[in-house]
Amino acid sequence: MPSKSLELTKKLFHEKAFQIAIVGAILFLILAHPILVNLVDRLFAFVGIQLGDTLLTVVHSLVYAVALYYSVFIILSLE
User: Fold this and answer.
1) What angle do CA 61, 48, 60 make, to 5 degrees?
2) 79 with 47: CB under 8 angstroms?
3) What are the mean pLDDT values of the chain's consecutive 10-residue runs (79 residues total)?
4) Which of 2, 29, 33, 75 can bridge 6 by disulfide, Cβ–Cβ 3.0-4.6 Å?
5) Full-prediction pTM beyond 0.85?
6) What's the pLDDT score for residue 6?
7) How far apart, in whole angstroms, are the C-alpha atoms of residue 41 and residue 30?
8) Neighbours of 36 (CB within 10 A)
9) Going by C-beta distance under 8 Å and a sequence separation of 6 or more, which residues neighbour residue 27?
10) How far is the C-alpha of 31 from the C-alpha of 64, rounded, in Å?
11) Which residues contact 24 (CB under 8 A, 6 or more apart)?
């Protein structure tokens, strides 16, 4: 017989809000990683576009927003 805490954890993982929070955290971890930020900065510099720190943050924020939007859309349409 499963324990009450196991049932509570199982219920928590099936809640949409929790799933969205986990996906958002993972996306943020990936997109805000310094290695990726430096890679994108070098890529823009390679094509001749110089981005300052603030504009680079805005670019990453926009990419995060789009990725989170589609992730939430997929999570909400699963059930």
Assistant:
1) 5
2) no
3) 75 80 94 93 94 92 96 85
4) 2
5) no
6) 79
7) 15
8) 13
9) 64, 67, 68, 71
10) 7
11) 68, 71
Determine the distance from the C-alpha atom of residue 27 to the mean position of all C-alpha atoms in its chain, rounded to a whole number: 2
CA–CA distance, 39 with 75 (Å, rounded to integer): 29
**pLDDT at residue 49, as a whole number:** 92
CA distance 43 to 60: 13
**Cα separations in angstroms, 29 against 32, 33, 48, 52, 57:** 6, 6, 28, 21, 14
pLDDT at position 11? 76
**Residue whose C-alpha is closest to residue 67's, from 36, 39, 45, 35:** 36
Q: Count other Cβ atoms within 10 Å, centred on residue 40.
A: 16
Residue 31, both tokens: 């997109």
